[in-house]
Amino acid sequence: MAKRTEWTTKMGEIYYNAGGAKLVRQSAESRIIAVIGTFDLLHRGHIDLLQKAKALDGSLVVIMPTDESIKEPHRPFNMDRFNIVKQLRQVDWVIGMDATSPYKVLEELRPEIVVTMQESVSEINEPIMDIINKYGQLVIIPKTYNISTTDIAIKIVDYAQVLLKEKESEECNALIKEYDDDTK
Q: Per-residue b/e over 155-165, b at no fewer than 16 CB within 10 Å?
């Protein structure tokens, strides 16, 4: 494993760091633990992942794609997600990156541990795995909650449709009442 004494910020903008200090290895045993994710609609599955990653004993760095680099339509949902994640007690650092290229961040950061959820393993391509193997290991956390950002988004859309129908119904009833009042 390559030795590094100080971490620099060439790879992306630092949005937060606990205590305002540079991330410095206190000793050869101190570890950097990285979690990569969008954390768009933060839920208990995310919290569980971050708690288990922090329990691996090291500085927890959350690497998130910037809003501008996310290419999915209508994403991110939560434009304040960096501020929310940085409030979590498990998180030591939050770093923004280009969503299309986590390689630069991982190569610069050189985490000893990269943590991911079981269902996200398929998203780890060969170049990312090469970087992980070069500096450390991949730790896969099993999913403990049956919840996902997609599930939450679908529920929000369903609820919005119900509200829209209620509003349309109320507006329709108001128009009928107005018509009735006018025809009397």
A: eeeeeeeeeee
